[in-house]
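Marked as duplicate of an earlier ticket. Keeping the data here for the record.
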Amino acid sequence: MKNFFRRAAVLAAAAVMSVSVCSCGKDDHSHSHAQMVGDGGGNADKDELSKIYGVNMTKLKKDVPIEIEYDRNFLSEDEGRLLSNYLSAVCNADAELYKSVSYEPAVNDIVAVKESGGIDVYIKGLHDSIGHYAGKEYDFSFIVITDSKEEDSPHFDAILKDTAPDAVITSKKLVTVDAYYDTPEAKECSLYSKMGDYIYFYVYTIDGKPYMYG
């Protein structure tokens, strides 16, 4: 099953990575989706182009804890805000913020499966798993959603079936993310470059509102 830090957990266990000064710097945050669009839409009409992730990128800066870039054809503004808040919760090990972006009837079951110490310990674990790569004093400065596709999580579906059988689910998305971060030693470092992979998690729309699962 794909989950939020599947690669972080595997790679952290396999090797201890250096968290000294990395060769980071200001770059074009849009490089990933720009390459994905490529030259494929030369003769395509608008409808065809709208099906290609990266064609209609937008940045959300106001009223979000972390600036975020995503394709508005694939994600709504509410989903963009949700993703920004979720990454902020992880970055700051903020249990209350984590709960606010998670589906309340299922959140305790989600945490219990992965961490017996409760939400505070669980969110601290997510924070620390990023710290294996970014260093202990990291701060997310920019988020790029590099892909979004319709895909469900059998594990989350099972939890929802048990905890909220009457919930109306209208959308299930798997989102691919690169996050840029600052440390005391370096600025605008790419987590993808450090880890060698993106991070993945799910956005479910339940009873008309988007929620995170990761």
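See parent ticket for discussion. The beta strands are 57-60, 67-71, 139-150, 169-182, 189-190, 199-206, 209-213.
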